[in-house]
Design brief:
alpha/beta; Nucleotidyltransferase, domain 5; seven-stranded mixed sheet; MULE transposase domain-containing protein
Length: 247
């Protein structure tokens, strides 16, 4: 079976070969069953996470691969978290990337729930550079501490001096960053701040003022544009200044 075969293509093949029609939903369920027989269930893949880790280390010596499980009272085990950073990526980031790291988490909404934690950089061409990622059971301070501890060691960040971290406003991540990288320049993602800002202060005028301010490259320019916002709408100014740029 072709793994990328679309349901409409399958319907066409069945109609041509067997001279009968099949509904899209039935075709979809059949395709899912066939793929399960070929590839196995996703939950079964998690049971082989140790094999996956060993294979990654065998093929990529010097990489960092860590996995953990939760052991229940009845001795059954459940996937807890897994971290991955390839050696080539580590060295490439150290040699040719900007000293800026973006940290973010996103939900996994498939069969197996969880959270994907990522560390993203920028290369010399200002393109996205994936540094490290982890799959965890939940986004919390403990998992971010674990992720940052491994990332700090992989990239030799020491106390964070000379580096900049950009993240959302998740409290656990901010606290974990302060603990492991006390001297890093930590900034909040403007897109996340604006998403909350526009819920109360919508419209083109507020949008233009916000982005003009967030794109300031020197402090004096930033303060001047913040004063413009304060003069136009003191409440909008107070909302923004509460998200101080020095996280």
């Amino acid at each position: 079976m072709k793994p990328n075969l679309k349901c409409k293509e399958m319907q066409s093949i069945i109609r041509t070969k067997f001279h009968c029609g099949v509904s899209w939903s039935k075709d979809y369920r059949t395709r899912c069953r066939a793929m399960t027989i070929i590839d196995g269930k996703l939950t079964e893949h998690y049971a082989r996470v140790w094999d996956y880790c060993h294979e990654l280390l065998r093929l990529n010596p010097g990489s960092t691969v860590q996995a953990g499980v939760t052991i229940n009272p009845d001795q059954t085990t459940y996937f807890h978290r897994m971290y991955l950073c390839f050696k080539a990526i580590k060295e490439g980031w150290k040699i040719g990337c900007c000293r800026v790291i973006g940290l973010d988490g996103s939900f996994l909404k498939g069969t197996c729930k969880g959270e994907l934690l990522t560390a993203i950089g920028r290369d010399a061409n200002n393109q996205v550079y994936q540094i490290a990622w982890a799959v965890v059971d939940i986004e919390n301070k403990a998992n971010w501490k674990w992720f940052l501890e491994l990332l700090t060691e992989d990239l030799n960040l020491l106390d964070g001096g000379g580096f900049t971290v950009i993240s959302d406003q998740y409290k656990g991540l901010i606290e974990a960053t302060k603990e492991f990288l006390p001297n890093v320049e930590h900034r909040q993602c403007a897109r996340h701040i604006y998403a909350n800002f526009r819920k109360t202060y919508s419209g083109v005028e507020f949008k233009n003022m916000f982005w003009a301010t967030s794109l300031s490259t020197v402090e004096s320019e930033f303060l001047r544009k913040m004063d413009d916002i304060k003069e136009d709408n003191p409440n909008a100014y107070e909302h923004l200044i509460a998200r101080h740029p020095h996280t």
